[in-house]
Every structure is written in structure tokens, then in C-alpha cells.
Amino acid sequence: MANVHLFNPENDVALGYWKNCFTLSPLVRSLHGDGASLPMWYASAGDFVFDPQASATPEWYGEAARRFGLDVTVEGCVPSGLKGVPWGWSYDACRQLREIGAEVPDRERMERHRLLSHRRLTAEVMTRLRVMLPFAVPEVPHEADSVKEVMRKFGEWGGRIFVKSPWSSSGRGVVYVDKWTDMAEARVRNMICRQGSVMCEPAVDKRRDFAMEFHSDGRRVVWVAYS
Prior knowledge:
alpha/beta; 4-stranded antiparallel beta sheet; 10 strands; 18% strand; elongated
């Protein structure tokens, strides 16, 4: 079965709202539209890429496919019955793909996926790593469901902490607090109100920002590269 790919960079925000539909900010809406063709570079031969604006520049897609040997079809109207493959899964991604007739996961699977995407999973992994690794790692993030609890960790960790929304991306939903003010408290309270809790992490003296990228085929996980 061929796949139909959807570029939805708003997915982490959608996980936080956990609704079938929500209003994108102008910046995210622009990113969604501008990057709609991105899946054509990683889709498999015979796949489709959903881009409602594809009909405006068919020559560009045809030329790009010819020059780079891409056997994919980019369309605003794709055949029904294809397997949906979004950039990330959420109820909103399911809605977008379902509207074009694609197959999507059931509600039970989506609920499990959302739990796996919660930042508390990082805390569980770090708890295990602290036992397994032969060197020290930073404090395990702490989940707090009240402003009072966040204030307690703020004092415990020397007055320098990061407060993070359970679901967020690209630096959004992350607040650095080195002074407890009314504004900081209001932001934390709003984050808890929206998503039910926040993850607190002690600030550490860093030397460099980087990420490690991994790939999973469903059976094993392999390190790919630094980013």
C-alpha cells in the first residue's frame, strides 16, 4: 500500500491541546504551508505527498522530481485508502489525513502515543540511566502539577530552573526562571492550566548545545548522528 505524507510541524503543539482541530498561529501556519513539499525528499517510491497548494506550481514539482530522481506524487487531491504518514501523530493529524481519505490509527493507539510523547518519559529514562551509566548525569526532571511545587523545586535547586510544558517543541513552552516574579508565576500557572503539569529541571552550566539523532525500525534503535 502506498503512503500519503503530511508535513505538520505544529504537531507538538497539537499534542498539548489534544483536540481534533485548533487554530494555528500565523507563524506556524506559514511554516506548515512553506514546508508542505518536504516529505517528497524522504517518501518512498510510489508514495503521495499532500499539499493543497501543489496545483499552483506543478512545473516546480515536476522539475524537482526529474532532477533528483524522486518517484513521488505531490497533489492537493490524493487517492483515498492510502496509509497516512504525518510528520507527527496527534488527533489533529488524524483529522487532516482522515479528511483526504487516508487510513489513520484508532483512538487507543493515539492515546498511547500521546503518553509516550510526554516529557515525563524523559524522567523515566534518566532514572534508569543514572543506575546504568558509569558517570554522573544531571538531576532527573521533576513533574509538578502546582505552582507551589514548582516554587519548592526552584528553592531546592538554587534558584535556577527550567520549567517546560509536557508537550512543546523548538524552544517554545520552555521558561528559564532565575528570579521568582509575578510574571514567572503567571507563566507557570498558565502552562499547568493548559496541560495539567510541567516538568522542572535544574539549570546547569553548559558548554555546548547539541542533540543526538536515533532511528528505530520498530525492533531496535540505532544512533545516527549528532545535530
